């Protein structure tokens, strides 16, 4: 089932002089994690605003769970964490979630059950009575994530969810998002942290100057380099040089083994057989691929 769909979504300002987003088409399957990438000013936040009804499109249309994005009913099952959000410093964490929960129409009883669970989920249960003005940037970001979940939404829009969070905090947010996916939630992420996106996304789209330039499964962005890294005992590396020469293999000796250009499975297996004949133990074989960051930089040049 399709959770989010846009057809030709366009947003131009100043009588068409500023093209924030042009003819954007996307379909996001329910229960998946979809990530939107692009440099600053690419149109990522504009797309979020259009899908959430915060801004009206110049042309085009979109749906959330089958309802038109201009219909307020489309946002009933949505949670949203905005980029660089501002939270009222005079409230504490528990009060903040209660306030937003009431605005989302959640009953007092449900809030009494949900708030402790969400605070524990984002590792803020021991800071629930602390005023938000004393929260760090990472703590505010985690609390914002809890706020996006307060109404138990089916679809969650997260604009830079790990911004300002330390590496351990990013791992915790990642685990939360993967758990939400297991629960059948659909997650739409706008992020600059490509390594995090690569780890959790089912599909990715890249925007450049308001135009969609690539969309596909995450694996589509991780291109093979045609090389393998083979780890062997350090003291045995030099004895492999003759094998490489005999097989005319382009290779590079490395600290914990070597990398070699291999044309296919048969050549890889033949090389491994030759190495084993020399009584050299192979510790690991890794097919090297370009990272999402490599691909991102290449297409945006």
How would you describe this structure to a colleague?
The structure is a single chain. This protein has 301 residues and is α/β, with parallel strands linked by helices. The protein folds into two domains: 220 residues, P-loop containing nucleotide triphosphate hydrolases (Rossmann fold); 72 residues, Alpha-Beta Plaits, CATH 3.30.70. The strands form three sheets. Strands 6-7-8-3-9-10 form a six-stranded mixed beta sheet, with helices on both faces. Strands 2-1-4-5 form a four-stranded antiparallel beta sheet, with helices on one face. A hairpin with a 4-residue loop joins strand 1 and strand 2. Helix 2 crosses helix 3. The protein starts with a strand and ends with a helix.
Q: How many strands?
A: 14
Rg, please?
24 Å
State the low-pLDDT regions, or none.
none
Q: For the record, what is the CATH homologous superfamily label of the largest domain?
A: P-loop containing nucleotide triphosphate hydrolases
Q: Percent of residues in beta strands?
A: 25-35%
- Specify the helix fraction band: 25-40%
**Assembly status:** single chain
């Amino acid at each position: 089932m399709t959770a989010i769909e846009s057809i030709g979504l366009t947003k131009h300002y100043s009588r068409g002089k500023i093209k924030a987003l042009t003819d954007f088409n996307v379909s996001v399957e329910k229960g998946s994690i979809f990530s939107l990438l692009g440099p600053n000013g690419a149109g990522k936040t504009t797309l979020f605003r259009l899908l959430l009804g915060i801004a009206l499109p110049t042309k085009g249309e979109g749906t959330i769970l089958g309802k038109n994005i201009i219909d307020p009913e489309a946002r009933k099952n949505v949670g949203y964490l905005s980029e660089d959000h501002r939270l009222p410093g005079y409230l504490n964490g528990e009060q903040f979630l209660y306030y937003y929960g009431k605005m989302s129409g959640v009953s007092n009883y449900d809030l009494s059950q949900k708030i402790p669970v969400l605070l524990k989920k984002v590792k803020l249960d021991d800071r629930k009575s602390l005023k938000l003005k004393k929260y760090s940037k990472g703590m505010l970001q985690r609390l914002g994530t809890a706020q996006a979940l307060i109404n138990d939404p089916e679809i969650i829009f997260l604009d830079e969810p790990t911004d300002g969070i330390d590496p351990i905090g990013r791992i915790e947010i990642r685990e939360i998002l993967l758990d939400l996916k297991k629960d059948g939630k659909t997650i739409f992420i706008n992020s600059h942290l490509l390594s995090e996106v690569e780890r959790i996304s089912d599909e990715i789209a890249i925007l450049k100057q308001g135009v969609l330039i690539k969309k596909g499964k995450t694996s589509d962005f991780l291109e093979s380099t045609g090389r393998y890294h083979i780890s062997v005992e350090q003291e045995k590396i030099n004895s492999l040089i003759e094998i490489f020469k005999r097989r005319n293999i382009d290779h590079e000796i490395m600290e914990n083994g070597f990398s070699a250009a291999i044309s296919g499975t048969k050549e890889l297996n033949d090389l491994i057989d030759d190495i084993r004949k020399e009584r050299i133990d192979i510790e690991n074989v890794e097919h090297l691929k370009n990272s999402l960051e490599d691909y991102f930089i290449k297409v945006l040049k």
